[in-house]
Amino acid sequence: MRYCFSAAFLASLILGVALQSPCYGAVINEFFADDDGGDDAEFVELYGSPGESLSGLSFIVVDGDTSGNTTSSNFNRVTVQIDFTTESIPADGFFVLGGGTTPNVDYSFGVNTLQNGSQTYALVRTADIAFDAEDDDELTEASVNAITANLIDAVGSLDNGEGDLVYFGAPDISDGTGFAIDSAQRIPNGVDTDSAADWLTESTFPEKELADTAATPGTVNAAAIPEPSSILMALMAASGVGAVAMRRRLG
Length: 251
Prior knowledge:
The chain has helices spanning 7-15, 141-149, 228-250; strands at 27-32, 43-47, 57-63, 77-83, 94-98, 107-108, 119-125, 131-132, 135-139, 153-157, 183-186, 199-202. The radius of gyration is 19 Å and the shape is globular. It has one domain (7-224). The protein has 251 residues and is an alpha+beta fold. The protein contains 3 helices and 12 strands, in the order αβββββββββαβββα. The strands form 3 sheets. A 6-stranded mixed sheet has the order 6-5-2-1-11-12, with no helix packed on it. Strands 4-3-7-10 form a 4-stranded antiparallel sheet, with no helix packed on it. The protein is 16% helix and 24% strand. This is PEP-CTERM sorting domain-containing protein. Keywords: Signal. Residues 1-25 form the signal peptide. It comes from Aeoliella straminimaris.
């Protein structure tokens, strides 16, 4: 859990802008995994402090389905692994991994990269990833434990298949409909209380185009922006608190 209060954090809540307290690490802020047709607008968005290095971290997707297209006995199967080396969070606070027609992409991946169904998306330390010697898609039990112990961030959802799993203690943002969550965003941006309540979710069945969802790759999640009157009141209140504090310091 990365949760603290600071001037930058409060400003991000008030203004809905990409300001992030230094005590936060990068988090998975938004994803869109199943658009209409060939899935050419998928993306995952990270949110963090401008300039924050992602070196030594990896984004992975672990298939939570325990039947169907998986043959693993333990089902710890990694379907996507992106290792970061020189990448960092841009000045606006948003780092977008995407492909095809996805706008504002900082790291490109191929069309139809993200699988549908029960999935766990995780930002982990690359050094903690280890695969079974007989199956290079399957995490070892020790690796699952190491990732869980050193987790940066994770979120998962299930499509209600029997025995399906969410990994690494991630919050399960499933909505109980039996369909996987294909589009989700943190509200407000970057706030992480290790709870499904951090997320606004959308099942895109039947499939939708990116433009027909609430998804906002590389920009502020729209629902995080308060009404202008609320912004003004919050700024006035903050100004008043600052004035009182200054008077106290000056005696």
